[in-house]
Amino acid sequence: MEQPPGYVDSRYPSHVCRLRRALYGLKQAPRAWFHRFSTFLLATGFSCSRADSSLFVFSKGADLIYLLLYVDDIVVTNNNSALLDAFIGKLSKEFSTKDMGSLSYFLGLEAHRTSSGLFLSQAKYAHEILQRAKLVDSKPVSTPMVVARHLSTDGPDFDDPSLYRSLVGALQYLTITRPDLAHAVSAVSQYMHKPSLCHFQAVKRILRYIKGTLRYGLSFTPSSSCNILAYSDADWAGCPDTRRSISSYAIYLGDNLVSWRSKKQPIVSRSSCESEYRALASTAAEVKWLGHLLRDLKVTSSSSLILLCDNQSSIFLATNLVSHNRSKHIELDYHFVRELVASRELRLQYVPTNLQLADILTKSLGRPAFIFFRSKLCVQDSQTLGLRGGITEDQDKDQDQD
Fold first, then answer.
1. Which of 139-153, 268-282, 312-326 is predicted with the least confidence, judged by mean pLDDT?
2. pLDDT (tens digit per residue) in 189-209
3. Residue 131, exposed/middle/buried by CB under 10 A (0-12, 13-18, 19+)?
4. Which domains can be identified in the chain, with CATH numbers?
5. What are 67-96's pLDDT values in tens digits?
6. In which order are the strands placed within the sheet that holds 305-309?
7. Could you tell me where the DSSP H helices lie in 58-160?
8. Cα separation of 65 and 197, whole Å?
9. Partners of 219 in the beta sheet?
């Protein structure tokens, strides 16, 4: 650090400031702030979640307080308003805080309370991406990718790779409330180092799809069940360049989608059974983590975790220890699925392909199948829920004309 003008001592011109407190912009500032804030919470009676270090839980009898911290943005909720008011009073005495009221906007996510539950969207953020790409007036399409299309490294290079990386990076954050975009965004993200013209055309199609679904978001409704239901799927050798498979999962807590993923597997699979088995392993790991998170939230599940797969060979491989010769080449860390099944923590069940909800996260689908699976992922139009917030009047006019 350099001394600001007026603080330089003529007797000691080479002296510098001694840092006594962490300031914004310093590398150690986030760690120092988190330590300061977490120390206060732990002294107040909170406990830090082992599954998520940003989550703090206060539990006393039937009273619960959940606090989620992201740098200096805080979300607090509980089941006792008097207890919450008392805690906010303590928090205000310790730190300089500003109560923003009921949750409406957090880290670019728009939250709306509806008659049926909660609706999360990023309409404003999506519109800003369209403005950056100059596609606000583009013609919408019904799906984010061409049916049965796989991107490859072939084709002429795109002349503005910085624009490509900027748009794809913004789309990655948009998938927080748009699981229907997960596979398409994952596909274009694999060519950030050297995008071609066809890759940019794929990005433009995603943006045209967003133009027609600008108000869409993720809906959550109250559910009497707290059971975890997971769908696991894989597209064997889905990458034409490396012949690696695409694995995906969609995990539900009750009737609500809480976790999803679409990602290329790290190594090549020799069969569709092997690729599905590796997808089962990654899904089981996520399900196991969600189970730990629910325990930290003091939520109990009444039954074992259920994992649905549309490949009977991989189910047999995970439940039958006799099939050693068929799996001796698979790494041992994937076989922890067998232990979960043997201990009855996890139940594997077969689901037909036409009901495999994770299929939308592994490949590009036709319009009827895509719309069907999109609705099952709890992705809805805000207009159907009676909401019109988060979009300007000009955007509303554009949508009405479309």
1. 312-326
2. 999 999 999 999 999 999 999
3. exposed
4. 1-101 (no CATH), 118-215+387-401 (no CATH), 225-258+269-361 (3.30.420.10)
5. 999 988 999 999 989 999 999 999 999 998
6. 256-264, 246-253, 228-235, 305-309, 346-350
7. 81-94, 123-133
8. 50
9. 119
